[in-house]
Design goal:
Blueprint (H helix, E strand, L loop, with lengths): L4 E7 L6 H9 L6 E8 L5 H11 L3 E6 L4 H11 L4 E4 L5 E2 L3 H10 L6 E3 L2 E3 L7 E3 L5 E3 L4 H7 L11 E4 L15 H13 L3 E3 L5 E2 L13 H18 L6 H21 L3 H9 L8 H6 L4 H6 L1 H6 L1 H15 L8
Helix pairs in contact: 1-2, 6-7, 7-8, 8-13
């Protein structure tokens, strides 16, 4: 019997969060679907918990491997996946009942659709909790999928876990090992450019939980530098597609803010020089800035970006930030 769906769940020292995650996934899988737990060298008993859960649920398989990071675990999952469709989940999140069945039904009903995105509740249980959901079901087709994604600022939500993909989209694709923001990298640079049609669903829910110690809780210079590198590649990809001038302008402002954040995280002059070298080659004209639907204060803030470019603008913003906070020692 053909496996319809494989849900890949990388596991590394997931502790008490692992069981609720796997139970929320395995407990709702339709017949012919599987959850693939990739134990990435856990040392806290999570590997043994994976084996226990595989004995409890017929649809759960386990791979044990040496620790290599989340990208390495996902690559191992892709190599072992049997499903016609692929989904991803993080070991400390949960998925609402019925999510996979309802969305598989929608995807199966549209043979031309390459993937489907369903709702996500972000930062569940925290003051930052909010819902990421399409206002109504939609079918995006007939044009350039990357241009639509870029125009709608998809780089702000470059997650894999609230989507179902046809397996073919990942043919030859590898997650970049040793880097963070691997979701955005793979989605923006490999999956979306291959997509001819995708669906926006209002069915189901992925519940993203922000945990203490999670990779997404605290930012660092290295993480932010990786992020800016990915933005630079997205900018290059956008030039090959019919992205609108307004979308390019919004991306320029976003990239400039990301570069400013990197400068703020730098602790030495050398790191600041490296940060400026990471700047994506974005441009923002005065005319486009004026036409953007932004508050006047935001337009004024980004005036230097239009007049002097991303490096000068971000360096100016960084210096203004330093004036507003207590001076810290800087090692050179």
């Amino acid at each position: 019997m053909e496996t319809l769906l494989t849900v890949i769940i990388p596991v590394f020292n997931a502790g008490d969060y692992l069981r609720p995650c796997v139970e929320s996934v395995a407990g709702q899988l339709p017949d012919g679907c599987e959850a693939l737990l990739v134990d990435d060298g856990s040392t806290d008993g999570s590997g043994e918990a994976c084996d226990e859960l595989s004995r409890r649920y017929a649809g759960v398989r386990v791979i044990h491997k040496a620790n290599g990071g989340v990208s390495s675990a996902r690559n191992a999952g892709l190599d072992a996946a049997r499903g016609r469709y692929i989904a991803f989940a993080d070991a400390d999140d949960t998925v609402a009942p019925g999510t996979y069945e309802a969305n598989l039904r929608l995807l199966e009903a549209d043979p031309e659709a390459d993937f489907l995105e369903f709702p996500a509740r972000m930062f569940c249980g925290s003051p930052r909790e909010h819902l990421r959901r399409a206002s109504s079901p939609a079918r995006i087709s007939g044009g350039d999928a990357f241009a639509w994604w870029f125009d709608h600022e998809g780089y702000l939500y470059g997650y894999l876990w609230n989507k179902l993909f046809r397996r073919e989209l990942f043919a030859g694709v590898r997650f970049p090992e040793g880097h963070v923001y691997e979701d955005l990298h793979v989605l923006a640079l490999h999956v979306i450019p291959r997509t001819k049609r995708f669906l926006l669903s209002t069915e189901g829910m992925y519940c993203y939980h922000s945990r203490a110690g999670s990779l997404t809780v605290a930012n660092t210079y290295g993480r932010q530098r990786d992020f800016l590198h990915t933005l630079r590649l997205i900018r290059q990809e956008s030039l090959r597609h019919a992205a609108s001038p307004e979308a390019q302008a919004r991306f320029a402002i976003f990239a400039a803010n990301a570069l400013t954040d990197l400068l703020d995280l730098a602790s030495t002059r050398r790191e600041r020089r490296q940060a400026l070298q990471e700047a994506p080659g974005v441009r923002l004209s005065l005319k486009t800035l004026w036409q953007l639907c932004l508050p006047l204060a935001q337009k004024a803030k980004n005036l230097a970006l239009a007049l002097a470019g991303i490096r000068a603008h971000s360096l100016l913003m960084h210096r203004l930030h330093r004036l507003r906070r207590p001076r810290r020692a800087s090692a050179d």
